[in-house]
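Q: Structure tokens for this one, please.
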Amino acid sequence: MKIEKSFTVVAPRENVWEFITSPESVAPCIPGCEQVEQVGPKKYRAGIKIKIGPIRTKFKVDIDVLEERPPEFASYQTQGVEGGKASRIKAVSKLSLTEIDSAATEVLYTSEINLIGRLGKFSQGMMNKVADSIGEDFILALRKEIEVAGES
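A: Here is the predicted structure, written as tokens:
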């Protein structure tokens, strides 16, 4: 499954980069993210609760930073298992920041996701709807945090 989102944040690119590449800052913006901890250089672990159809579950995920080119590009690999190991997820994500002007930044996010196990059996349509909803909630929370912080 491929996810691609593009949105604008009213803040300078350096501010967006600093926020979005800080796990402590960005984690509260991710729907269902309970905690994030650094487990090594450029390596993080998180717990994420999600709901897909009638199933509520939690994934334990490991995130590795594959590449960073501040303040314009980063790529990540995420791997995780659902509690009870009923499902596995693997994703490669890319984040690009483009300066629109000194006060606005375009964010482009793409992710190739492979989900196997019981959750992988859900129809592609349902998975896309869940991913889209999570993405929209993330964008709203991220904008609020960055744009409100920029006003103070």
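A few notes: DSSP finds three helices and seven strands in the chain. Helices lie at 13-20, 23-26, 124-151.
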